[in-house]
């Protein structure tokens, strides 16, 4: 199983931690993730609200590319609906070059009302706009000379002057609803999802994966290895009670910033099972269950709600050095640190 890091980078302007301090902490987390053998460092894109403080993941990933050498660098997600596909393709081709071929491009259509309002876009048209923009980004990243007359874009004989190292760049489509899993699979695409927002309890993750694999099978893809990644809030501590003491207040603060979505506080998320909170043994058991469901890539979200940096780094280390060995899912291709 691949273990990765996912960072929303939620910011709290009324609290003492500055944006610069947050960014410095996340850079340190990425360096430590590489040392610990994490696979990918995924960064979210958000606008106009403290829920997330990275409006352009390409800029942040470019910085990460110069402080790491092996860690893959991912977007979770790049919101294609808001941007000119030419700019998106150029930005991420440059990231792939700067990182020497380490980009993982997660894409989505967006879901936050204030972001659509800020860009002056109609959310009712987001699916059409996303589909057109995704098609163009893929063609541009493949090096095509693109001419296109569409509903949202007009392009005449344009080819990127900076090509990505990878051909093709691995691309993932993010979903928010269980029913979308089948459709993404039917398109033969990789998938990202956050169960917190998509399902009601831990076992439903397995049902979503069944839907996804059914779609993949209809697309002629029988092997789902490496095709899906799931994001879960994570804090690994010596005991389950230690995890509660360390993480409950931070998680509840994080939940307060969520807009337009159900708000599951710490006790709710423990009841639903949609997290990796607890002792190494508790977390190992859940990782093993995820593997039984067919998942082989977990995006662990350790940094949330002003969690102190020492506790973030401690949880990251406990996940890799204690929980993973107990789960029986330790990767054979990454040397122990």
Automatic annotation (TrEMBL):
<dbReference type="GO" id="GO:0052601">
    <property type="term" value="F:limonene 1,2-monooxygenase [NAD(P)H) activity"/>
</dbReference>
<dbReference type="GO" id="GO:0005829">
    <property type="term" value="C:cytosol"/>
</dbReference>
<keyword id="KW-0560">Oxidoreductase</keyword>
<keyword id="KW-0503">Monooxygenase</keyword>
<dbReference type="InterPro" id="IPR050766">
    <property type="entry name" value="Bact_Lucif_Oxidored"/>
</dbReference>
<feature type="domain" description="Luciferase-like">
    <location>
        <begin position="16"/>
        <end position="297"/>
    </location>
</feature>
<dbReference type="Pfam" id="PF00296">
    <property type="entry name" value="Bac_luciferase"/>
</dbReference>
<protein>
    <submittedName>
        <fullName>Limonene 1,2-monooxygenase</fullName>
        <ecNumber>1.14.13.107</ecNumber>
    </submittedName>
</protein>
<dbReference type="InterPro" id="IPR036661">
    <property type="entry name" value="Luciferase-like_sf"/>
</dbReference>
<dbReference type="InterPro" id="IPR011251">
    <property type="entry name" value="Luciferase-like_dom"/>
</dbReference>
